[in-house]
Amino acid sequence: MAPKRPKGAGAFPKPVEPPAPDQKDPVELYAALDLGTNSCRMLIAQPKGSQFHVVDSFSKSVQLGHGLESSGRLSRASIGRTIHALKICQRKLKKHRVKNMRLVATEACRRARNGRDFMRMVRRETGLRMEIIKPEEEARLAVISCAPLVSTKTEQLLVVDIGGGSTELVWIDLATVPPAERPRAIMRMRGALTSDPGPFPAARVVDWISVPLGVATLREQFDDVREDAARFALMSCAFEEQLETFLPFHNDHAREGFQIIGTSGTVTTVAATHLGLRRYDRNKVDGLRMSSDQIDEVIRSYLNLGPSGRRADPRIGKDRQALIMSGSAILQALLRIWPTDQLSVADRGLREGLLYSQMSSDGVLEDGVY
């Protein structure tokens, strides 16, 4: 399948703070649910100044897209696992009496022939009104969530969101924006590329692409390759081939002034391994900068461990051991195409983007120091 390149990207978030105490006013609560190809994740949060406090959360690997690559449909088993997870989310939403929410599904439901039927089943079985969002909306929300990590030294920015069924890449030119204004220029961006920024310096979206290969779909495509290292090499090359129509693919960019921000379970797992964390700590991972050499070292260690070693590693685990290699193959391909000294790690994504988008639209976030 050829990559999709719809028109649109933009962002305007604020950083996420640690979870807040219980007993929040339900009128002020917002929820965001992201149903992806592999996981079902939800955040319930309360606006707090220019940021938000997390009140409750949920995350579960449901493998909704398992078998989709070969059948073109969501399987009965995958649907059953997902409905069970969504019923838990529904109970949490009811418990906190959440009124403001946006519940979205992404690539698996976009591609599946029975994706729309599944949305109707979700409504019937759980009472939840979910929507299948377009790739451009998914990319826009990814940029929203990562904007606080943009450096004032950045002239060319690549935001990468490695999902279960697809990978979104957004390239933004900040060279004409004064350094001190670059993060704010990202914040002022809206959905349309032609949005008028008013009297403020504007960030320019050069190009963006939604590649229909994520950690689950890429792994499934090469499931018949038994040798670990060979499968990894094939996955990395296959992903790189999908980027040939992406405008910046053919351009040489200097390392100075170039920043890649990566958001996904792959990127945060690689960061946790690099840090040697026994237990995952978001405060240590989010915003971390890793060099390309450090990332290569972690990926080599994954290959040396092999499937059984990765499964036994507490930082990876049995559920993620196969997917971490397909995600690493995507990451290695990106660093091969655009050599850079550092990658910024973002433990944030679609849920955070959904929350900030809702809260910003409702005017409940204050304008604080960015």
Account of the 3D structure:
The protein has about 375 residues and is of the alpha/beta class. It has 2 domains: about 25-135, Nucleotidyltransferase, domain 5, CATH 3.30.420.40; about 145-345, Exopolyphosphatase. Domain 2 (Nucleotidyltransferase, domain 5, 2-Layer Sandwich), CATH 3.30.420.150. Helix content is about 40%, strand content about 20%. It contains 13 helices and 11 strands. The chain has helices at about 70, 75-95, 105-110, 115-125, 135-145, 180-185, 215-220, 230-240, 265-275, 280-285, 290-310, 320-335, 350-360, and strands spanning about 30-35, 40-50, 50-60, 100-105, 130, 155-160, 165-175, 205-210, 260-265, 290, 340-345. Strands 8-7-6-9-11-10 form a 6-stranded mixed sheet. A 5-stranded mixed sheet has the order 3-2-1-4-5. Residues about 10-25 and about 190-195 have low confidence and may be disordered.
Summarize the structure.
It is built from 13 helices and eleven strands. By secondary structure, it is an alpha/beta fold.
Strand and helix layout:
Blueprint: E1 30-35, E2 39-48, E3 51-61, H1 68-71, H2 76-95, E4 100-105, H3 107-111, H4 115-126, E5 131-132, H5 135-146, E6 156-162, E7 167-173, H6 182-187, E8 204-211, H7 215-221, H8 228-241, E9 258-263, H9 265-275, H10 282-285, E10 289-291, H11 292-312, H12 321-337, E11 342-346, H13 350-362
Helix pairs in contact: 2-4, 5-13, 7-12, 8-12, 9-11, 9-12, 11-12
